[in-house]
């Protein structure tokens, strides 16, 4: 759906400012930092030793010949010595805090999660995968409706003039949720950039589609004129993040501007249109707005799995189903109008 990834941007500003005050409370703890430093030297923390600490960043064993390489699947997960040390020191420190009645804190900007098979945030990964599946189902059902259930023109093209726009949207949405799942499974520089870049690409394109559909822009030349400046800006922004500096503050401002603009466009359009399925769009807009509250009232993961962000991912699943249902209804609605005009 249009508002599923970054329509929360307005509320995230508040969350971001609050998070700055406590984002690194855990990793600033002297006892935690001392534990990690000692672990990286000795390869052991709390009586547990890690074989990964025999491998430096190049993957070659410290105490063996050059051909002793770290297993490929461990390289892919990048679950290395530092990761093991940080995680186990975090767990030990959280047990100490819990024993004296203190609640959990964030370490390196993240809550302490319980990994499953090396997956850092299993709930967020599962919900991201489900969102990916819902977008695939929605796009596939939209494709079948257009080319198998609705009349086609003589050139075998759909009557629905926004078909190609929604096809591209579906592909971008699936790509975005794919990298969301990968990023939540293992947070490293590459997966972070792929997740953020994919999300920004989806956000920027969603704004373009919201303008084209709301203002009923059907002439190809006009569409190019509308889309060109937005595409140029989004492309430049992604290149800036990936090849110049990964500026979280600037990225937040960009997402706020695009997200708010998109949300306002759909809210105004649904308020004045007489579309027969406008109630579905109302539910998506209002439901997405309520889901934003989860980003404001951030809380630590319950049982080490379900934090506010993971639950927010869960709320977008039914909204995505309803969103694609609206798109299919819009295709039927526009096709019926064009068929009447053609007669």
From TrEMBL:
Keyword set includes DNA-binding: no
Coiled coil: none
InterPro entries: Per1-like
Membrane topology term: Multi-pass membrane protein
Keyword RNA-binding among UniProt keywords: no
Cell location: Endomembrane system; Golgi apparatus membrane
GO BP: any one term: GPI anchor biosynthetic process
Signal peptide span: 1-23
Pfam families hit by this protein: Per1
Transmembrane domains' residue ranges: 132-150, 162-182, 194-212, 224-244, 250-272, 279-297, 309-327
GO MF: hydrolase activity, acting on ester bonds
Source species, domain of life: Eukaryota
Assigned GO CC terms: endoplasmic reticulum membrane; Golgi membrane
UniProt xrefs under PANTHER family: PER1-RELATED (PTHR13148), POST-GPI ATTACHMENT TO PROTEINS FACTOR 3 (PTHR13148:SF0)
Family of this protein: Belongs to the PGAP3 family.
Primary role: Involved in the lipid remodeling steps of GPI-anchor maturation.
Protein name as catalogued: Post-GPI attachment to proteins factor 3
């Amino acid at each position: 759906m249009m508002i599923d990834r970054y329509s929360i941007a307005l509320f995230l500003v508040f969350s971001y400012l609050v998070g700055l005050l406590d984002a690194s409370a855990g990793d600033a703890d002297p006892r935690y930092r001392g534990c990690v430093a000692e672990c990286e030297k000795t390869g052991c923390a709390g009586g547990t030793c890690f074989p990964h600490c025999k491998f430096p960043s190049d993957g070659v064993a410290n105490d063996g010949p050059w051909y002793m390489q770290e297993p490929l699947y461990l390289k892919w997960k990048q679950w290395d010595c530092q990761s093991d040390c940080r995680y186990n020191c975090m767990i030990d420190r959280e047990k100490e805090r819990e024993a004296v009645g203190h609640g959990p804190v964030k370490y390196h900007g993240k809550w302490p999660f319980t990994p499953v098979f090396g997956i850092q945030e299993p709930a967020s990964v599962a919900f991201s995968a489900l969102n990916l599946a819902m977008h695939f189902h929605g796009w596939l059902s939209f494709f079948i409706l257009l080319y198998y259930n609705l009349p086609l023109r003589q050139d075998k093209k759909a009557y629905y003039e926004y078909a190609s726009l929604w096809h591209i949207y579906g592909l971008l949405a699936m790509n975005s949720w794919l990298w969301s799942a990968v990023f939540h499974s293992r947070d490293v520089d590459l997966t972070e950039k792929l997740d953020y870049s994919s999300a920004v690409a989806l956000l920027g394109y969603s704004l373009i589609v919201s303008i084209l559909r709301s203002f009923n822009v059907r002439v190809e030349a006009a569409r190019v004129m509308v889309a060109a400046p937005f595409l140029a800006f989004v492309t430049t922004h992604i290149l800036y993040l990936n090849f110049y500096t990964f500026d979280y503050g600037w990225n937040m401002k960009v997402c706020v501007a695009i997200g708010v603009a998109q949300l306002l466009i759909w809210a105004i359009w649904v308020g004045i249109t007489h579309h027969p399925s406008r109630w579905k769009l109302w539910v998506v807009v209002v439901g997405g707005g309520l889901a934003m509250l989860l980003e404001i009232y951030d809380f630590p993961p319950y049982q080490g799995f379900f934090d506010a962000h993971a639950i927010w991912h869960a709320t977008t699943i039914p909204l995505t189903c309803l969103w694609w249902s609206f798109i299919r209804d819009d295709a039927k609605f526009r096709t019926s109008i064009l068929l009447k005009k053609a007669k």
